[in-house]
Amino acid sequence: MFPSFQFQYHHSAYQDISLLVSKEISKNDLQFEVEGKNYLLLPQHKNQQIGKLKVQYQQKTIYEYPLILNHDIQSSMMDTIGIYGILICIPVALVGIIVTIKRKKDKHD
Fold first, then answer.
1. Partner residues linked to 55 by β-bridges
2. Which residues contact 2 (CB under 8 A, 6 or more apart)?
3. How far apart are CA 30 and CA 62, in angstroms?
4. pTM of the predicted model over 0.70
5. What is the mean pLDDT of residues 56-74?
């Protein structure tokens, strides 16, 4: 497996979230936390859960909402370029090293 380049993917919300809470609680009293991995390996597929949104009031979680992909996310162009770059550069570098060693050896003989 090749290491991947990092990129950000901005995903719009699949739907709005509505909560029924006491009249004494305002939107400013709530804390929102997204829980999930810091990175995802691609590809990721539609309907896959990639994390969850936690709604908290006074440090207590009062609601959890699963974050589900509503479409597939494939490898990025940078991933493809990086993999092909590695696959091309390593053999070219090895050939260059072998040619250099052979030339030095021929000069000494």
1. 32, 63
2. 82, 83, 86
3. 9
4. no
5. 88
**Residue linked to tokens 């990721």:** 44
Tell me how far the alpha carbon of residue 108 is from its chain's centroid.
52
Cα–Cα distance measured from residue 14 to residue 34, given in angstroms and rounded to the nearest whole number: 15
3-state secondary structure string across 71-86: CCECCCHHHHHHHHHH
Instruction: Name the DSSP letter for residue 65.
Output: E
Q: How far is CA 69 from CA 45, 78, 97, in A?
A: 7, 21, 47
Widest Cα–Cα separation across the chain: 92
Query: What CA–CA distances, in Å, run from 25 to 20, 29, 100?
Result: 10, 6, 74
Strands ordered across the beta sheet of 30-36: 30-36, 49-57, 60-68
> Average of pLDDT values for 74-89?
70
